[in-house]
Model the fold of this input.
Amino acid sequence: MSYKAGDIALVKFPSADLKKSKKRPVVVVKSENELKDIVCFQITSNHKQTNLLKIENDDLDNSTLALKSFIKYDKCFTINTDIVDKKIAKINSKLLLQLKTLFCSELF
Done:
């Protein structure tokens, strides 16, 4: 499967000791490249953090999320799709543009 900007996926993040992993949701902001890398932002249900963008059900294309969720837009990271478990949803282009705008505003 190829991952595209806007996809929400479950990722197997390793623990600090690298012996276990825990599945966490991310939103892809840069589509998969030839090396199978994607650029992502963390999704959290912890609304007490800073720099969050709320995901409403209207922001999703033909899907819903189980919990009230927020995109943590101040930190992006690159991962290889080998640690992606599966795609679970997709945000619409309006929210994706809002996310990119917020991230860029944090840089300056």
